[in-house]
Amino acid sequence: MSGIAFTAQQENAIESRGDALLISAAAGSGKTAVLVERVLRYLIEEKGEIQRLIIMTYTRAAADELRLKIKTAAEEYQRRNGGSAHLLRQSALIDSAEIGTIHSICLNLITRYFQQLDLDPRCRLIDDAAEQAMAEEEAERLMEQLYGEKEEQTQLFLRCFGAGRSDVELRDLLIGGLRFLENQPLPEDYIRRACAPYRQTGQGLFACFAEDGLYQYLSQRVAELRAEYAFLVHHAGMHPYLREFPAFMAFIEAEQQQFDALPALLEKRDYNRFRAYLGTVRFEPLRWNSLTEKNGDSEAQNRFRQMRERFKKSFLELKEQLEQPEREELRRLRQQETLLEAYFSICMRLLKRLSEERRRQGLISYQDMEQMAVRLLVAAYDPGQDMLTPTPLAKQLRQDYDEIIIDEFQDTNRAQDLIFRALSQEGKNLFMVGDMKQSIYRFRGAEPEIFSQKRRNAVPFTERKLGAPTVLELNMNFRSHPGVLRFVNSVFENIMSRELGGVAYEAGERLAPGRTFDEQDECCAELHWMEPQQDPDTGRKMEVTVQNARYIAQLIRRMVRERQPLRLPGGGSRPVAFQDFAILLRTVSGTAGIFERELLRAGVPVSNYNEGARFYDLEEVQSILAYLLVLNNPYDDVALVSLLYGDYFRFSVGELASMREKDRPLYENLKAAAARDEKARRACEIIERFRQMAGILYVYDLLYRIYEESGIFAVYAARAGGAEKSANLELLAEEARLFEKEGYRGLYAFVQHIRLSQAGMQSGARLEAAENSVQIMSIHKSKGLEFPICILGDGQKKLNLRDSSARILLHPRYGAATEHQDPELFFRCRSLMQTVLANQMVTDNISEEERVLYVALTRAKSRVILVSTVEKQTMEKWVLEGTFLNKPFPLWMLKRKDASYARWLFSLCAASQEGEALRSTFRFSAGTGRIPLHAAFLRAEGRMEQRPDAQAEEEPPRFNCTAFHKRLDWDYPHLAAVRLPAKLSVSELKGIREADAEAQPLLEEQLRPERPRFASNFAPRGNEIGNALHQALQFGDFLKLREDPAGELSRLVAEGFILEKQRRLIPLNKIRAFTQSKSFLNLLEADYYNKEERFIFPIPADALFGPEAQGEILIQGVLDCYAVKGRKAVILDYKTDRVQHAQELIDRYRIQMDLYEQALRRVKGLEVIRREIYSFSLEETVCL
Predict the structure, then answer these.
(1) Is 325 left (phi over 0), alpha (psi -120 to 50) or beta?
(2) Phi then psi for 320, rounded to 5 degrees?
(3) Which residues pair with 1131 in a beta bridge?
(4) Cα(736)–Cα(754) distance, rounded to whole angstroms?
(5) Do residues 174 and 298 both lie within one domain?
(6) Which domain-ending residue is among 361, 394, 421?
(7) What is d(CA 146, CA 138) in angstroms, rounded to the nearest whole number?
(8) 671 and 706 assigned to the same domain
(9) Is 58 helix (H, G, I), strand (E, B) or coil?
(10) Chain segment 602-647, per-residue pLDDT in tens
(11) Out of 208-212, 337-341, 921-925, 987-991, which region has the weakest mean confidence (pLDDT)?
């Protein structure tokens, strides 16, 4: 119906109805188009109602995009085929349909049924930063309380985990447990299940581990050890030198036989006997003279010895883990149970306190939404049988929905899955779309096992039967060049399995090309390796990330300069451009900035989507925060130094040092310096003026007053990344607006809010990618996007496995474990339970990392490149492991502690048919080349260039006196333009036009002295009355000013918009006259009117300063009010000037009104049909 030619698989996904359908949609398979088409056909063919669908995805941006695509598809169908009344109505209802994130659906649910939750319906969402600050505060209060309690179990826990230099580690441990329990649908049930195995000590050690964890762990370790030693034997058997010595081969085969007995021994589940056998295993020394020959191939011998030593280390690690006999392990488990019970008790207390505090403040968190939705919909849940009992409300609600569509289902957690199932008709009307291979949000609580379990329980679409859930695979990729797909398939066939990655990468998972390109057989993947080098700028060893960034910058420049061809879908090519490149990073914190700097240094335009940069640490945000801190407290010396030194006042270090006196605050020194220094005087004046404004204005308005008066946007416009810096300042102002919208007021309150939020807000404003620029972003940020050329930077970085080393481990399926402690002997060590659980967490983390790599590689449309800087001896070790591989990677190799993307891919390259260049670097050749990788290996040799394309310095020319004097006599031809301002306000421009050129210099500011305090009881000035009247019109409600001006002014005072002394200055008769004027009545008859409209636009400089002026000047200002009817506008400017005749106002403000008209025409696209000034002095409307 949308006009797209769908494949047979896609048609099946669109048309299938009746039972639960799980769509396993690979990268680039067009799942969004399928989802939109399914909804469209439901509306058209089945006459369905959009209100009877729930469509969920996992980000607001994705939900908004999905809503727009559905609406666009419906409107396009109506345009082509003529819309029925039904479809027209459904199109109109799409904006109000339940299309959103899981949390928006939950929020809608709990606000509808708030009375069942005893919830304040006015509650509002707490942001992550404030919630984290609240959690830390509650944790610290709870710890103070705990230290005063005498309960024995609690005190034992505190002695074991609270002993340290500070309580930060204990606090973080409690908050970690809090966060984990918040993500469990039924926290108390999880605690019961996690503690249950510890109570099975009477049934033997193997019974004390959830999911038969100990047996599964030992089976896996035995299999890995045997596979690793078998690899040693295989290596020796394939090696052209070692295999020639029967004595040596017999030696290692005999050693191997010691491990062949382990599986049978483990099957008996006799822990002590298994442990005792490990103690009998011996590693005899390698006597090369007797096993091979004297003075043999020492290189081959050393390589084998290194591999054997690594195996011995693995074996001894297992032996040490089973050091204690079963009886001692059982005793330790009983002690660990006590510690875990205390830990969970404290965490639940913290969870309760935090929930109560949020409820007291009328706040809810994202976790609260899920928990409350589960309470509303789930009466009971048995995780063992995976059986759900819905509440009566859930049974009632499920009748309202024909289908529940869930996008990105692989990122679901258990609570969300229960919500979906409870709202569905016993699971039969669920349409779930996802890809196990792209589940990369475990750190946010996602449980990919849910997707995996549903897939295992579903029948294939070709075998579907009534009443059974069905799985349908979409594996045709419409994004990437076949060469990219061949590389991706080859990589993941060899590293991804059901054990690691959660998916057996077999026929149904392989990506099939869905688009045609020229040069279908072209190699589209490259692996680039460099050895660490010295920095030519400093002579020191270059930091690895800097070297990678510099190399990538030079690589991109060269490819663009050489106009290398970029293959296009459907055939043909074009020269590559900067905008075709995306640099994807596993972690951006501390890395993306380096890449951005090196690319800019190389002359490569860049857009940095660095969500790892903390917003409040950005330079431009720090500067304006210093301004606010000074306005809040000018005696904050640190903030004042930052403000004066920064972009707003530009004091030099010498100027700051000259005014510094001991034993006196810097602000007092600044005021003292104001008597003799114009720059200091102006700074004092501005600070004092804004401090007075801070007591009246919203922080949002205060910020924009600072921005406009300082011209900071113009300052940033002249710098690299200026648009982004300006956007970050606007983002801070928006943060202030949202803060005050929640009922908070005042600069002090906002400053305190910022201090609490310092650690939370992670990213600044990110604009659309600059035209023709390289994009830098994290792999997670790139999900759902596509780029012609993807460069995976810093591939050598080790994978993050740190969470498996925590002192207390929590796993949603395998329970909980704590370290063993003896507080009397001040002794602690890793427990056996902790070892088993840590191994599972490492497996989960490695699986996640494989999926992250999959996401990165499948973003590329035409080419993918990995760049790594690795020491030669490290690369030799990787190549040695890969050289003799003739089958997919063994688990023990993938799970090494120093695992990285580079290690995996270069080891695969060494085992591949295309890896001859890599193998020959280390003189490996035997038994190689069995795996097709479809990737090219490139070794970057030679030194890094100091500057890209830097030319050798030529011999300096001889001194030429004539040329020297000619240069000294040169005059800058555009000197007049230097004196022109970059930006002018409307008021400044009016003054320039009206003033005499000699008496009024271009940028001289006319300062009016403030009224001294002793004169405060005298009659007010005219400008004070005018300011008060103007402020009342700005913040007041026009209709209320008409009905009850005195009451509305009192409201403005009560809410802090104006001061009481200002209210007394405002003449009520002038307000009444204005509200009865023709101008006011025209406002009420308009479609809408806007007040205090800020604008900024450029005009040619020669229009203001004559033909010699060149370039453009920014004009900025604030329009009092304008009314709009259709696309036509009427400008209304109110003036309090004391005049005798209307012509005075016309002559005085004609230029200003001309500019206002230009602003509305150019910025808003409105046609101005009338320009009016309302004179409060004359009490009449003046038309220009």
Answers:
(1) beta
(2) -70, -35
(3) 1122, 1171
(4) 10
(5) yes
(6) 361
(7) 12
(8) yes
(9) coil
(10) 989 888 765 444 567 677 888 888 899 899 888 888 888 888 888 8
(11) 987-991
Name 377's Cβ contacts closer than 8 Å, sequence gap at least 6.
109, 390, 391, 393, 394, 397, 418, 419, 422, 423
For residue 749, how far is the Cα from the chain centroid? 27
Which has the closest alpha carbon to 437: 510, 361, 345? Answer: 510
Calculate the CA dihedral of residues 1120, 1123, 1124, 1125 and round it to 10 degrees. Answer: -170
Residues sharing a CB contact under 8 Å with residue 307, sequence separation 6 or more, in sequence order: 232, 235, 880, 881
Phi and psi at residue 710, to the nearest 5°: -80, -20
Q: Within a 13 Å sphere around the CA of 1052, how many CA atoms are in the beta-carbon half?
A: 30
Q: How many residues does the chain have?
A: 1184
The first and second tokens of residue 495, run together, are: 């590293």
Q: What is the DSSP string of 469-520?
A: -EEEEE-EESSS-HHHHHHHHHHHHHH-BTTTBSS--STTTS-EE-S--SST
Nearest to 229 by CA among 321, 304, 319, 322: 304
d(CA 661, CA 665): 8
Kindly tell me the sign of the dihedral angle through the C-alpha atoms of 1045, 1050, 1051, 1057: positive
Q: Is the dihedral of CA 779, 781, 786, 789 positive or negative?
A: negative
Predicted confidence at residue 662, as pLDDT, reads 66
CB atoms within 10 A of CB 771: 10
Looking at residue 689, which CATH number applies to its domain?
Answer: 1.10.486.10
What value does the mean pLDDT take over residues 858-867? 94
Residue pair 201/208 in contact (Cβ under 8 Å)? The answer is: yes
Query: Are both 1174 and 1095 inside the same structural domain?
Result: yes
Strands 1167-1175 and 1180-1183: antiparallel
Beta bridge partners of 574: 566
CATH number at residue 566: 3.40.50.300
**Domain span at 671:** 615-759
Place of tokens 């038309």: 1183
- DSSP string for residues in 402-426: SEEEESSGGG--HHHHHHHHHHSST
Say what the pLDDT of residue 892 is: 82
Residue pair 1181/1157 in contact by the 8 Å Cβ criterion:
no
Q: How many CB atoms lie within 10 A of CB 981?
A: 18
Residues 301, 429: one domain? no
Q: What are phi and psi of 323, to 5 degrees?
A: -65, -35
Instruction: Count the neighbouring beta carbons within 10 Å of the beta carbon of residue 1134.
Output: 19
Q: Assess contact for 814 and 837: CB atoms under 8 A.
A: yes
For residue 228, give both structure tokens: 């690793």
In degrees and rounded to multiples of 5, residue 945 shows phi and psi of: -75, 140
Instruction: Place 995 in a pLDDT band, splitting at 50, 70 and 90.
Output: very low
pLDDT tens, residue by residue, 708-722: 888 888 877 766 667
Note the pTM of the prediction, 2 decimals: 0.73
Last residue of a domain, one of 434, 454, 474: 474
Q: How many CB atoms lie within 10 A of CB 519?
A: 14
Beta carbons of 590 and 737 less than 8 angstroms apart: no
pLDDT greater than 70 at residue 998: no
H/E run at residue 941: none
Average pLDDT over residues 537-555: 89
- How would you classify the pairing of strands 820-822 and 827-829? antiparallel
Helix (H, G, I), strand (E, B) or coil at 16: coil
Q: Which two tokens stand for residue 440?
A: 């990369």
Closest CA to 221 of 904, 890, 901, 903: 890
